[in-house]
UniProtKB/TrEMBL annotation:
Bilayer-spanning residue ranges: 6-23, 35-54, 60-80
Domain YetF C-terminal: 87-215
Source domain of life: Bacteria
Record keywords, A-Z: Cell membrane, Membrane, Transmembrane, Transmembrane helix
Limits of the YetF-like N-terminal transmembrane domain: 8-80
Family from the record: Belongs to the UPF0702 family.
Chief location of this protein within or outside the cell: membrane
Protein name: DUF421 domain-containing protein
Subcellular location: Cell membrane
Length: 233
């Protein structure tokens, strides 16, 4: 019985927490930033973790050691890449121009294994439905495509119109799904009594009825209840 608990409960829990700690050490990275090397490492680490969790013939300590090796390899690679730009270009790659000065770079399309349909699809994801509107399209090393439109098709900004829009800072979430976020309430230099009083001004008696409450940089309390929404000053 103890052996069964060890193999099917204790080992998976140990591997999970070891992975959690090791991943925290590597730092945060969004899925869009993951390179091919990170992807391969992730698959390998997952396979090792799975084997170390359920395989009776895999020693737990040896499994953890191998996991640590595969976690620290990408960290070492990242450090070397940070110190050496040439090494980074060889291991991670470099951006490719798919469109340059309004002209499709067919050689780079072939190099990136991109068809014209692939390019058009990526442009549509950037809200570009006409190839002739693009000045530059760059395939980044993480697989995303960055797009710069030609000047006549670029969006007009307030600066282009000599307009100075009012400052809009960060909105602090004070209540989420009926629960007060104490840390943000402290950042806003407010207390629970003030928050309850402001909510009462909007005919809300119970904090649990508030789906969201945000405190803006100009001192407004934005309230969204579970049935209706309104804004309080």
């Amino acid at each position: 019985m103890l052996m069964i608990l060890f193999h099917f409960l204790f080992k998976p829990l140990v591997i999970f927490f070891v992975l959690l700690m090791l991943v925290k050490v590597t730092g945060k990275k969004s899925l869009s930033q993951i390179t091919y090397f990170d992807y391969i490492s992730g698959i390998t680490i997952g396979a090792i973790a799975g084997a170390a969790s359920i395989d009776k013939h895999t020693d737990l300590i040896k499994g953890i050691i191998v996991l640590m090796i595969w976690i620290f390899i990408p960290m070492i690679m990242s450090y070397i890449e940070y110190r050496s730009f040439s090494f980074e270009r060889k291991t991670v790659g470099e951006p490719l121009f798919l469109i340059k000065n309004g002209v499709v770079a067919t050689y780079n399309l072939k190099k990136a294994k991109y068809s014209i349909n692939d390019l058009l699809m990526q442009l549509r994801k950037k809200d570009v439905f006409d190839l002739t509107e693009v000045e530059f399209a760059i395939l980044e090393v993480d697989g995303t495509v960055s797009v710069l439109k030609k000047a006549p098709y670029s969006k007009v900004t307030p600066q282009d119109l000599n307009i100075n829009p009012p400052y809009k800072g960060l909105t602090l979430s004070l209540i989420i799904n009926g629960i007060i976020v104490d840390s943000n309430l402290h950042l806003a230099e407010k207390d629970k009594a003030w928050l309850e009083e402001e909510i009462k001004k909007n005919n809300i008696t119970n904090i649990e009825d508030v789906l969201y409450a945000g405190y803006t940089s100009v001192g407004k309390l934005e309230l969204v209840t579970k049935n209706t929404s309104n804004t309080a000053t």
